[in-house]
């Protein structure tokens, strides 16, 4: 088949890109290895920056987000004996919205279906070809075992951290940081014990109390990389969360509940550049991974496609290449800012065996919590910089 833009991957980046391109009158086809049900049920991110929320509204995707999203003015920072609230709205004039990636993916899936978007689910052996020419194409094998081919003017790799698109860019520069710890994450059918997220430093390790709705909590524990999840019973998880999050501190209590999902998520920082080679563009996790501590992964994917969609519209519709030529450099400015912020939050909050590091972390936390300048720096990055930063 033939289209203007062939998109590899129907995660948030691929689906939103096809939506924005459609609005600009540009046709696309998406290929995706998983089923639609799998993509929409995948539990991942849940914090939307203000600029992401604004973009979704402008794109006509704000209805359920408005009724079911939960606006948060800020976060709590916690360490033994102390809890401080940072009010992002007071500090920088904007906050964040709790809305699960699952819900955003469902909204995008419905909107794409209503527009008649062609999405080929459950394909295998996806490969991108001839991206250095003006006639790139994508090949794949459909669920019926039939070989398929999409000829396009542009190919966009939105295929996440394990997809094939990134490897089609010859001799890229890459940077990577792996961490000695992972996150053990749970979803629990219990009302959150807090109105806004609690980021907790504790000598036993970091903990985070997040949420997905008024009845579903999402909580995380720092565990060593390579941790076997079967060693963590639900009781052990709740006990560790209670200790690290400060159960009993100033009368605050953590209410446990039935665990419906648990998994261990390794932490990694990764950037590949450039994000464009010939007629191949990368967006989202295909080009960069951040540890989730700064809640940036999903927002970065959205910011990439918010830049890329108008750039491709100008290139393909108006034959104007300037925005497309600038895409990689422009996107990478924000990518590196978020890469630094995610690393900074991660290294401030996750403990190592080094007692000197622990004192530095506590000193930094006290400074962020007590200095207007320190708090505003965290707030500005967490609530998100403008798309075109
Ligand atoms: C387990 C996990 C937990 C996370 N938790 C958080 C969190 O708590 N907070 C946060 O901010 N971020 C989190 N993230 C990061 C965030 O979810 C991602 O940054 C976001 O999903 C990026 O969107 P994307 O569309 O670029 O990539 P993805 O969501 O990864 O989508 C890529 C799509 O491409 C498809 N694909 C892959 N290979 C192929 C192929 N060969 N052919 C066709 N399709 C292909 C995949 O199936 C997938 O649907 C998490 C990530 C993971 C993996």
UniProtKB/TrEMBL annotation:
UniProt-listed Gene3D superfamilies: D-Amino Acid Oxidase, subunit A, domain 2 (3.30.9.10), FAD/NAD(P)-binding domain (3.50.50.60)
SUPFAM superfamilies in alphabetical order: FAD-linked reductases, C-terminal domain, FAD/NAD(P)-binding domain
InterPro entries associated with the record: FAD-bd, FAD/NAD-bd_sf, PheA/TfdB_FAD_monoxygenase
Pfam families named in the record: FAD_binding_3
UniProt keyword annotations, A-Z: Oxidoreductase
FAD-binding domain: residues covered: 2-341
Signal peptide: none
NCBIfam families: PRK08243.1
Name used for this protein in its record: 4-hydroxybenzoate 3-monooxygenase
